Amino acid sequence: TMAHTSNKELTVYCNSSTWPEVRAAFQAARVTEPNYWIAHYDNKPSIPARAVAKQYASNHKFDTSVVASHWPGVDPG
Predict the structure, then answer these.
(1) What is the CA radius of gyration of the chain?
(2) Cα angle at 55 between 2 and 62, to 5 degrees?
(3) β-strand 35-39 against 11-15: which pairing, if any?
(4) Please, which pLDDT band fits residue 14 given cuts at 50, 70 and 90?
(5) Residues 6+ apart with CB under 8 A from 26
(6) For residue 9, what pLDDT is reported?
């Protein structure tokens, strides 16, 4: 069983290539996984399943992300 520790108010930012390892670390620690903000510069504004945001483009002065309509720990309810 999972520990009673809840990480649903936390957000972890990582790139798509290391995301499976990050998820495995939370699972191995037997704690609830946090929200994930994934960096994947494919110029496609689509959020991967199990993520709340995706940074999809790197522009000259800033990066561009798309976010879910509800972000646990950020948005109320």
Answers:
(1) 13
(2) 140
(3) parallel
(4) very high
(5) 7, 32, 33, 34
(6) 79
Residue 56 contacts residue 64 (beta carbons within 8 Å): yes
Cβ–Cβ under 8 Å, residues 10 and 37: no
Single out the residue of 41, 21, 25, 44 nearest to residue 33, CA to CA: 25
More confident residue, 42 or 10: 42
Q: How far is CA 41 from CA 28, 37, 53, in A?
A: 28, 13, 13
Helix (H, G, I), strand (E, B) or coil at 54: strand
Q: How far apart are CA 62 and CA 6, in angstroms?
A: 32
Question: Tell me: the pLDDT tens digits for 25-71?
Answer: 999 999 889 999 999 999 999 999 999 999 999 988 999 999 999 98
Would you state the pLDDT for residue 4?
47
